[in-house]
Design goal:
By secondary structure, the chain is α/β, with parallel strands linked by helices. The protein has a single domain, classed as Ribonuclease H-like superfamily/Ribonuclease H (Nucleotidyltransferase, domain 5). Helices cover 30% and strands 22% of the residues. The protein has 7 helices and 9 strands; from the N terminus they run E-E-E-H-H-E-E-H-E-H-E-E-E-H-H-H. It starts with 5 loop residues before the first strand and ends in a 12-residue tail after the last helix.
Length: 272
């Protein structure tokens, strides 16, 4: 199988006071409220969604996750974001980055589903996607997004999750996803796009080569460098540093798949 035209997805989350539709979170996270409790969607929010395609990068983010942005333009920011997200386009190593900043998590989630749906089609010469790629998305990213969409009363579009008892996760399942002894892992598709969880491509590789079974160590062992930060202090990063870190993960995962798709027989790991 030749290299598919993929959408690579990665998310960032932070723990803190949940927002509501009429009371969006406008204060930055503090040291006390930003502890990484990423395994509990009821106490965490999705702050960033990164998407990478062969044509562009997309960074959808929550305004409150950017302290300097909030502090420097609180009133103006809220007024403008009430009507539409803040849009910005820039270049990262000659690749266009489309950045959208949202006031509400519910809007960010709904836009994520709409964006993935849109990227399946040719638009002004854009390459249509035919595969969704994540790292540990079968256990974390996709069920987490589904839970947060349900909590927010919004939709991600046609995200299908089917329990996969054969997949044994590295980490514990999200709360509520381990009922009746379930592993908490899922086979998935989104708007008809099949899903490839790259983490499980490298499960045996990591063990055989004494490499930590996580994205950055595996990528480093394959010659791909990625930005590393103390995730417990992510809320302290300024706007530029946070964007660079968030996009580094999705770009690094994209490079890993492009480099190893054939060598690691990744097509055999695509959810069917």
């Amino acid at each position: 199988m030749t290299l598919p035209n993929m959408i690579v997805l990665d998310i960032e989350t932070l723990t803190g006071t949940a927002e509501t539709a009429d009371q969006p979170r406008l204060s930055p996270w503090s040291d006390e409220t930003s502890s990484i409790d990423g395994l509990n969607p009821s106490r965490s929010v999705v702050t960033d969604v990164q998407l990478a395609t062969s044509d562009a990068l997309y960074h959808l983010r929550l305004a409150a996750a950017c302290p300097d942005l909030v502090e420097n333009a609180r009133g103006q920011l809220v007024q403008s974001l009430m009507s539409s997200p803040r849009e910005r386009c820039y270049q990262l190593d000659s690749t266009p980055v489309y950045e959208l900043t949202f006031l509400h998590e519910s809007t960010l989630l709904r836009e994520t589903g709409m964006r993935i749906d849109d990227l399946r089609f040719d638009d002004n010469g854009r390459t249509p996607a035919d595969l969704l790629v994540t790292w540990n998305g079968s256990v974390f990213d996709l069920p987490f997004l589904a839970d947060r969409a349900e909590i927010n009363g919004t939709t991600l579009g046609d995200l299908q999750l089917a329990p996969d008892p054969a997949r044994q996760p590295k980490y514990q399942a999200l709360p509520g996803h381990d009922r009746n002894g379930a592993s908490g892992a899922y086979k998935a598709s989104w708007h008809g796009l099949p899903h490839l969880d790259v983490a499980y491509v490298y499960q045996q590789y990591a063990r055989a080569n004494d490499v930590d079974w996580s994205l950055k160590p595996v990528a480093a062992s394959r010659g791909i460098d990625m930005i590393t930060v103390d995730r417990a202090r992510m809320h302290q990063l300024d706007e530029a540093a946070r964007s660079s870190y968030a996009l580094s993960d999705v770009v690094g995962l994209q490079q890993l798949v492009q480099s190893d798709f054939q060598a690691m027989n990744m097509s055999a790991h695509i959810d069917r």
